[in-house]
Specification:
The protein is mostly helical. Helices cover 65% and strands 0% of the residues. The chain is built from four helices and no strands.
């Protein structure tokens, strides 16, 4: 999955359930199981706030980290 501002905007339009499952899937695909056992919070507004505030540099860094995880 290519992450850019359009992707972030698409994520922000998702329901809470879909957003949570998409993020868990993306993390697992990158080789990171940190979210595997986490239960979905009742309120994802803080997560949405963080996603909405990501800069292009932040997005580039996230993409870089996810790619590194795939290689392991």
């Amino acid at each position: 999955m290519k992450i850019d501002k359009n992707t972030i905007n698409m994520l922000l339009k998702m329901s809470d359930d879909r957003l949570w499952s998409t993020l868990k899937f993306a993390m697992s695909r990158s080789g990171n199981d940190i979210m595997k056992d986490l239960k979905q919070p009742e309120d994802l507004s803080k997560l949405r706030e963080v996603l909405a505030g990501l800069t292009d540099d932040d997005i580039d860094r996230v993409s870089e980290l996810l790619e590194k995880g795939k290689k392991k």
